[in-house]
């Protein structure tokens, strides 16, 4: 099933006019109600980690090589036995279906058509089975439930859906102080009121194309993938309770999952080399170096800053990936040069889905692939695996 983008002519125009990923953010700021845009764009407390993520890439500069035949260059990349069109995928993002109509399915469709992986969020408002049916190569990201029996049941559900890669996000021991969300008018649970009503009235395209369309066709959205069973509706007070029982989780839970899960296992939220080594020793197939997009502990270093040390700590024993602040093909190349084998991009793809549906997601992927393809030629490499520290220096 393909999700229509609504006004096709408008989506086509928006996609044509978008020249880089940041263009989608500007359009999303106008299209989305302020609380929803603030939820995507914001981070925690002073937004220090969010700033670090973007600024870290400016600390490096390229050292291109010239007079090399780069006419046969390719952005194709192998990861976990699968060949992807480029070394990037779509990061997991919660409540995407509140930003774009059937947002998770739109992102999955876009990823599948673009030849890249998409990670289903444990905070999705659409059942993981429906999303996996659209994109069989999709991964699933789990926020671990607090109780062992619930962990086992969720793992079994993911396996039954035919998903081959399970990703565990481990940097959410407790709920962070996202005061920026509160200032923007967003809360969990979502509380209807006059302020929210005015935002709906003043953003009619989102209200009719996403919100009302969702309510009429699918009812009040629920958190569908937190457990083996359906979670609370997004307006329920139980939402906070369901997401707050993680402060006791430890390495024994990862060991338990590794014994039960036969597919590929990835740990996301690694920021220290000792934790990366521990994950590898526990049987993880890969780690994602990540500070949760700046949305957890404010003041955490950028993933790019700690990437070289983490990559060195595990060598080639597991796949080392990264997310956070990646907006350009040049950002991807810097991450690859510093030790990553793959990167994930989140916010820009959700902005693209919000303003232009499936065509927006496809356009965003095409932009990033085209940038990477041309930049590889300018750097003087023909394969993604050729990009190394030989090609960069401190700025």
Automatic annotation (TrEMBL):
Source organism, top-level taxon: Bacteria
Required cofactor names: FMN
Annotated EC: 1.1.2.3
Pfam families per the UniProt record, alphabetical: FMN_dh
Chain residues that bind glyoxylate: 39, 143, 178, 292, 295
Keyword Oxidoreductase: yes
Any one Gene Ontology molecular-function term assigned to this protein's record: L-lactate dehydrogenase (cytochrome) activity
Active site: 292 (proton acceptor)
GO biological process terms, semicolon-separated: aerobic respiration
Top enzyme class: oxidoreductase
Cited PROSITE patterns: FMN_HYDROXY_ACID_DH_1, FMN_HYDROXY_ACID_DH_2
Family: Belongs to the FMN-dependent alpha-hydroxy acid dehydrogenase family.
PANTHER family cross-referenced by the UniProt entry: 2-HYDROXYACID OXIDASE 1, S -2-HYDROXY-ACID OXIDASE-RELATED
Name of the protein: L-lactate dehydrogenase (Cytochrome) protein
Annotated organism of origin: Rhizobium etli (strain ATCC 51251 / DSM 11541 / JCM 21823 / NBRC 15573 / CFN 42)
